[in-house]
Design a protein that fits this description.
Helix content is about 45%, strand content about 15%. It has 11 helices and 10 strands. The longest helix is centred in the C-terminal third of the chain and has 26 residues. About 20% of the residues are buried.
Length: about 350
């Protein structure tokens, strides 16, 4: 290489951008800035470049240096090269917002599986109904789901739905439920998620409270405020009244003696406690809303899931509220439901 050619190449190398990867490897941009050449430079006698100019010139001259190598040689001593920054790719991750815990066990939501699947690259999802729900097959629906990833991997699984393994709120949509379960199971295989999808389980006990609140809003409140306050006192006195009534049946009271002077006030208070004081013996506990069917079902489901027998459940209700479950008020039933939910 002549001195003139070397000087010309050196001038061209002045405007080339050099990015250093490590001690010996560099990336040098072309004149147009469209591509980069990976240059190896380990000293004055050890260098190479993949550009066509170097490959051609090095065959006839062992000391040949292209403009990319000259750019590295000029930048390194002066510290004018840029340091390469390696960017880590974002790894697919299941969002914790899509994980719910029921009875100390984690479940993943269908939306979370779908989100993670798109992060990994879903190309297509196909669902094929295998059996439609009819009266002849016990309203059993089967669906087959196939998930195709962008890398060409295929994941297939099936899902079933019937009135027994679905919550009553979705029992009218068995085919859609079977489709959702099939897709969820296929996505679990694709995304390598071992948790069961929440849509796969049959008992959605967590939404019982919401159902009870909606039913409570529908109950008409016709009683005035004063009566409502008396009802709260009556709620506490119900167990005492029942016990007194049972005691009277077992041991009939003796003949009442003539009222003594000074006991008129006590007799009046007793009449008020027994009834309205009008001689009819009616109490105001009739206005207390009784336990609803939804609350009764919720208490039965929660006690069964926690291994509480019917006898133990009745004893819990009697000890806490003085009455059996079927005689609970709606307020006491809600309190018992919360107690069962919080018990381990």
């Amino acid at each position: 290489m002549t001195t003139a050619e070397l000087q010309k190449r050196s001038e061209k190398s002045q405007n080339l951008r050099v990015i250093q990867v490590d001690e010996t490897w560099f990336y040098v941009e072309s004149d147009e800035g469209k591509i980069c050449y990976k240059v190896c430079y380990a000293g004055e006698e050890n260098y190479c470049c993949p550009c066509g100019d170097f490959q051609k010139g090095a065959k006839s001259d062992l000391n040949f240096k292209c403009k990319h190598i000259l750019a590295v040689m000029n930048c390194v001593p002066n510290g004018e090269q840029e340091k390469a920054q390696f960017l880590e790719r974002r790894k697919p991750k299941l969002d914790e917002r899509f994980i719910t815990t029921i009875e100390n066990k984690d479940f993943v939501l269908y939306a979370g599986l779908l989100d993670l699947g798109h992060q990994k690259g879903i190309l297509k999802i196909d669902v094929e109904p295998l059996q439609l729900p009819t009266a002849e097959n016990g309203h059993m629906a089967f669906c087959k789901a196939t998930v195709l990833s962008k890398s060409g991997e295929v994941y297939t699984d099936v899902g079933d739905a019937n009135p027994q393994n679905c919550h009553p709120r979705v029992a009218k949509h068995l085919l859609r439920m079977a489709s959702t379960r099939a897709i969820a199971r296929a996505l679990r295989s694709m995304t390598n998620v071992g948790m069961t999808a929440l849509e796969e389980i049959a008992d959605f006990g967590d939404i019982i409270d919401v159902h009870d609140k909606r039913e409570a809003r529908k109950i008409p409140q016709a009683a005035p405020r004063k009566i409502a306050k008396v009802e709260k006192k009556d709620i506490k006195s119900i167990p005492q009244q029942e016990q007194a009534a049972q005691a009277n049946q077992d041991n009939p009271p003796p003949a009442q003696a003539a009222p003594q002077p000074g006991n008129d006030n006590k007799a009046a208070e007793a009449r008020k406690a027994d009834g309205n004081g009008n001689g009819k013996g009616k109490t105001k506990q009739e206005a207390i809303p009784k336990i609803s069917s939804a609350q009764a079902n919720a208490i039965a489901n929660l006690s069964r899931r926690r291994g509480i027998s019917v006898e133990d459940l009745e004893k819990m209700s009697t000890d806490a509220y003085g009455v059996k479950v079927e005689h609970l008020s709606q307020k006491d039933a809600s309190s018992l439901i919360r107690q069962l939910q919080q018990s381990s």
